[in-house]
Specification:
The structure holds 2 protein chains of 2 kinds. By secondary structure, chain A is mainly β. Chain A is 0% helix and 54% strand. In chain A, the strands form 2 sheets. In chain A, strands 2, 4, 5, 9, 10 and 11 form a 6-stranded mixed sheet that branches. Chain A has a 5-stranded antiparallel sheet with strand order 1-3-8-7-6, with no helix packed on it. In chain B, a hairpin with a 6-residue loop joins strand 4 (31-37) and strand 5 (44-50). The chains are: A mainly beta, B mainly beta.
Chain lengths: 111, 111
């Protein structure tokens, strides 16, 4: 079983749609959680951190459920520029603080 | 403030050869980590260096080795290249234990 699992997609949605991505993680000791965005043939870039209380950044809302070991990302009013791969990432606060990435979910927003 | 710089951007090597990839950390960052991203997958943690010492390693064989220099730049060395080593190699730097900034990566093709 992978440590961080995501539906690979692709999710094909029209502009203006609301789309939700889900992610599960296996290590209950994970302490920090993030969503990264990766454009084709580019490096991953931090989209937002994820907190149990939920957090919102404009059209993006992230949520963490520690009991279920589940992370979500909601994108409202999708734009063409949102087309990318979204990576769910967990981090353990141990030696190394390494990031563990999911396989990514590809989003394609169409006109 | 400069970001994370990786060189070369692209590289083609023959199976069995050795390769060295380079990374210049973001100014002020003392930690560098390396990730391998195969096509269609999320990045996989290779190892991390903090103040010139390896302080975390993923599930990669010993032929993957690294160095961090006093100026916090880093090298990733891979010996006895295999076809499956073809991937995007990403370097990320941070001011431990803070967030990571990724370089744009080196795309390695092994033929």
């Amino acid at each position: 079983r992978k440590e961080v699992e995501q539906d690979p997609g692709p999710f094909n949605v029209p502009e203006g749609a609301t789309v939700a991505f889900n992610c599960t993680y296996s290590n209950s000791a994970s302490q920090s959680f993030f969503w990264y965005r990766q454009d084709c043939r580019k490096e991953p870039k931090l989209l937002m951190s994820v907190y149990s209380s939920g957090n919102e950044d404009g059209r993006f809302t992230a949520q963490l459920n520690r009991a279920s070991q589940y992370i979500s990302l909601l994108i409202r009013d999708s734009k063409l520029s949102d087309s990318a791969t979204y990576l769910c990432v967990v981090q353990e606060n141990n030696a190394g603080n390494m990031l563990t990435f999911g396989g990514g979910t590809r989003l394609m927003v169409k006109p | 403030e400069t970001g994370v710089t990786q060189s070369p951007t692209h590289l083609i090597k023959t199976r069995g050869q050795q390769v060295t990839l380079r990374c210049s950390s973001q100014s002020g960052h003392n930690t560098v980590s390396w990730y391998q991203q195969a096509l269609g997958q999320g990045p996989q943690f290779i190892f991390q260096y903090y103040r010139e010492e390896e302080n975390g390693r993923g599930n990669f064989p010993p032929r993957f080795s690294g160095l961090q220099f006093p100026n916090y730049s880093s090298e990733l060395n891979v010996n006895a290249l295999e076809l499956d080593d073809s991937a995007l190699y990403l370097c990320a730097s941070s001011l431990y234990p803070g967030g990571y900034t990724f370089g744009s990566g080196t795309r390695l093709t092994v033929v």
